[in-house]
Design a protein that fits this description.
Layout: E1 32-43, E2 46-57, E3 61-65, H1 72-79, E4 87-92, E5 95-96, H2 102-108, E6 110-112, H3 125-132, H4 141-145, H5 149-168, H6 185-197, E7 203-207, H7 215-232, E8 235-239, H8 243-249, E9 252-257, E10 260-265, H9 267-272, H10 274-281
Parallel strand pairs: 3-8, 3-9, 6-7, 7-8
Antiparallel strand pairs: 1-2, 1-4, 4-5, 9-10
Helix pairs in contact: 3-5, 3-6, 5-6
Length: 287
């Protein structure tokens, strides 16, 4: 866990939301792409998430942080349909998603990466990204059997878009025919982001995107996350343990501890919050 303060002499991180930018203001459901109300998830007698209300403004970068075991990935799994909440509501663009399957939520505009990389290791880099676009393809199986021209046109368009996304994430053309498992770790992370972007999300969920990276890779990924918002106009929700990344890229931060939301605010507010300091550093840190 990185300390809440930056290196001595370094300029304090500035949240991307500029003055007057809605992303820098407190969340308002009316301008939010995602709204969560009173979300609770129980596993028998264990409560992993308890009564969490949460929203993400459009074109914002929001971080979800908390100690290990705070319920962050469980929260992600409910947003993406991999788990169903015990109580509460989730709305994406005003559409209730409870009961929907994961691929239906992807169709509504949610893309995701995972804490542990989940690439198709024995497929090429290009094919991995093309798989991500499958949910947006319109051709039917019988049209493929009949070899209709529209099928080939759609395949060509998907391949072209996959190459654009590889360029966006910094993987040059020379990598596209490599097997995914042959890429260095940092490039595998970037490939997973490209595959998630291929589904054309309006909201991108990144689960520990800098986990296992060296400082140089972490710095490049941090810059890249900000670039995604600027160039694609999407909202981003990330789980991240590196506080330098969180404080440097986030418009707003929500903090979980033992499954409950204990704080929410901009980076400066979170940096000074006694409950957050206690959750990460222990009660003695606040006395």
């Amino acid at each position: 866990m990185t300390a809440f303060t930056d290196d001595p002499g370094a300029s304090p991180p500035t949240a991307p939301g500029a003055e007057g930018d809605p992303a820098a203001a407190p969340p308002d459901e009316r301008g939010s792409i995602l709204v969560v109300r009173n979300l609770t998830k129980r596993f028998g007698g264990l409560v992993a998430n308890r009564d969490i209300s949460f929203s993400i403004p459009r074109r914002s970068i929001v971080s979800l942080i908390g100690p290990n075991g705070a319920g962050k990935t469980t929260f992600f799994n409910q947003l993406t349909g991999m788990m169903q909440p015990s109580e509460g509501e989730i709305e994406l663009n005003g559409v209730r998603t409870l009961g929907l399957l994961p691929h239906q939520i992807v169709e509504l505009g949610v893309g995701r990466t995972y804490q542990n990389i989940r690439l198709f290791n024995d497929m090429t880099v290009l094919a991995n990204v093309m798989v991500g676009h499958h949910v947006r393809m319109k051709s039917q199986w019988y049209e493929a059997i009949l070899h209709l021209p529209k099928v080939f046109a759609e395949e060509e368009a998907t391949e072209a878009r996959a190459r654009e996304l590889l360029e966006l994430v910094g993987l040059s053309k020379r990598y596209e025919n490599e097997l995914a498992r042959h890429l260095p770790y940092g490039d595998q992370r970037r490939l997973e982001v490209a595959r998630a972007l291929a589904s054309e999300p309006q909201l991108l969920l990144l689960d520990e995107p800098t986990a296992g990276m060296n400082p140089g890779e972490t710095a490049r990924m941090t810059q890249f996350i900000g670039r995604l918002r600027r160039e694609l106009g999407i909202a981003i929700l990330l789980i991240e343990h590196d506080m330098k990344v969180v404080m440097g890229v986030s418009d707003r931060i929500t903090v979980l501890d033992y499954g409950e939301k204990i704080a929410e605010g901009d980076p400066d507010e979170i940096r000074r919050n006694p409950k957050v300091i206690e959750a990460y550093l222990g009660k003695q840190a606040t006395t």
